[in-house]
From TrEMBL:
It comes from the Bacteria. Signal peptide: none annotated. One of its GO terms (molecular function) is metal ion binding. Pfam families: Radical_SAM. This is 4Fe-4S cluster-binding domain-containing protein. Its cofactor is [4Fe-4S] cluster. It comes from Sutterella seckii.
Length: 304
């Protein structure tokens, strides 16, 4: 099938080898997953006490030079599974006690995910489903998910799209991401937190502060607050690490400073953001990066 799911509009036939050479994300029509886990390090209203039921999909339509998950986003590490197996994975995560089902970097498998979710819900899946994406998405692709996704967690990486070109190799990042975030909000409405402290519906927008780019970060937060006010949560992250290909850009080839992060947090407070998350302590360590070893991706083989 010809793929134009994301703003890159590769027009690639992902079922053929020739088509994959044209595809920026390098994903075929076969679902590939690098890890299925209970992830304790998400926002508290997503992780809860048991952890978010994360499914890390292989491949990505961005090429962020500082990607912490580059093994699977750029390297494509992962195991192939059927749509039926993906549906089973959702139910298995629920059985493990997951607080939610969290789909991480899922956009290039939208059609397969829709089919798998519809099947799992018919079979009893009742947990909130979270769409955790880089934000570089098309409205028409997101609309395919209407009624299936309860919570959206998009990135808003850059306000200045020139930074998107420089660090993520993608044109018009803010133009597409801002429209995608508006579309996501129209599909969920204002955030709803249950009596158990867990989010049931709504949106959390994540923003990673980069070295030297705290002014751009402030512009991202200002746009989000002006557009959505207290109807969404904003997660400001300080976990940047100069890994993968960040060394190609000397200005970001260093850790984020405490002062840079504090400037962004102070701006958030100054403009009146109250529904948000900040990271405290040293989060820019490799121990917080998941180990993409394929756990729980394939069916467990019973002994004997």
């Amino acid at each position: 099938m010809i793929c134009n799911l994301c703003p890159r509009r590769c027009n690639a036939d992902r079922s053929s080898a020739a088509g994959l050479k044209r595809s920026i994300c390098r994903a075929s029509d076969d679902i590939e997953i690098a890890l299925v886990s209970l992830h304790a390090w998400e926002e508290p209203c997503i992780s809860g006490k048991t952890g978010a039921g994360t499914i890390f999909f292989s491949h990505c339509n961005l090429r962020c030079c500082f990607c912490q998950n580059y093994e699977i986003s750029a390297g494509g590490k992962g195991l192939r599974v059927s749509t039926e197996r993906l549906s089973d994975i959702f139910l298995e995560e629920a059985q493990r006690g997951a607080a939610c089902i969290e789909l991480v970097t899922p956009g290039h498998y939208t059609r397969q995910i829709v089919e798998a979710l519809e099947s799992a819900k018919k079979r009893g899946l009742a947990l909130p489903v979270v769409w955790n994406s880089n934000g570089y998405e098309l409205e028409e692709s997101l609309r395919m998910l209407d009624g299936l996704i309860d919570i959206f967690i998009p990135d808003l990486k850059y306000f200045d799209s020139r930074l998107g070109e420089k660090y993520s190799g993608v044109p018009h990042y803010f133009e597409y991401a801002s429209k995608a975030i508006e579309t996501m909000f129209s599909m969920t409405g204002p955030a709803v937190i249950g009596e158990d402290g867990l989010m049931k519906r709504g949106m959390i927008v994540r923003h990673l502060v980069l070295p030297w780019q705290w002014r751009d970060s402030c512009k991202c937060l200002s746009w989000l607050h002006e557009r959505f006010g207290d109807d969404i949560y904003i997660s400001v992250m300080n976990q940047y690490m100069p890994i993968f290909k960040a060394c190609r850009h000397p200005e970001i080839n260093r850790p984020l400073t405490t002062l840079e992060y504090q400037k962004v947090i102070r701006h958030a407070e100054a403009i009146g953001i109250t529904k948000g998350f900040m990271q405290i302590g040293k989060t820019n360590e490799e121990k917080f990066i998941p180990h993409f070893n394929g756990d729980h991706v394939l069916p467990e083989v019973m002994p004997g």
